[in-house]
Amino acid sequence: MIRAVLAVAIAVALLATTTPALSDAREDATRTEMDRIATHVERTGADLASSSPAVAEADLAPRSVLRVRLPTGFARRTIEGATIGCRADVGPKRGPKRDAAEGGEGCELVLAWRTDESGVETHRIRGVTLAPERSPIELSADGTWLRLEHRGRGDGDAVELRAIRPPEQGEGRIEV
């Protein structure tokens, strides 16, 4: 009887000492995966801008399509919400909404997420902007399809991001 009680006491003590480390590891793994997603979107935009000319017409603009899935599983924190949008719209210190005159130029694009045990965290996405007049893009664990287009504008060119329906067979796709 004493051995059983002692074994239970040791098991509880071991569990109590490892729980904080497991929690930290889950938080770090989630942050790493979310940073990887933001970096991949940023790199895809940079590759698109460097490898193709900007085109004003939407139908002719060079594009890349990718699918973004939020990390899930025991080794990750539960993500309660994740959005790609302007920092003023989705960041932890939300400000006034950008007005139509700002277009994408006044927009610092970020991937923002909130886990079950932390506040809102963000990762900046450089070189990419939301397509004009688009609201923030909600991401899901099932996968969200994104299209990046290298568009020419009167004031220069930009890589624009928008959410799309899943692509049909034969369209380019990259899984993230």
From TrEMBL:
<dbReference type="InterPro" id="IPR055735">
    <property type="entry name" value="DUF7311"/>
</dbReference>
<dbReference type="Pfam" id="PF23993">
    <property type="entry name" value="DUF7311"/>
</dbReference>
<protein>
    <recommendedName>
        <fullName>DUF7311 domain-containing protein</fullName>
    </recommendedName>
</protein>
<feature type="domain" description="DUF7311">
    <location>
        <begin position="1"/>
        <end position="159"/>
    </location>
</feature>
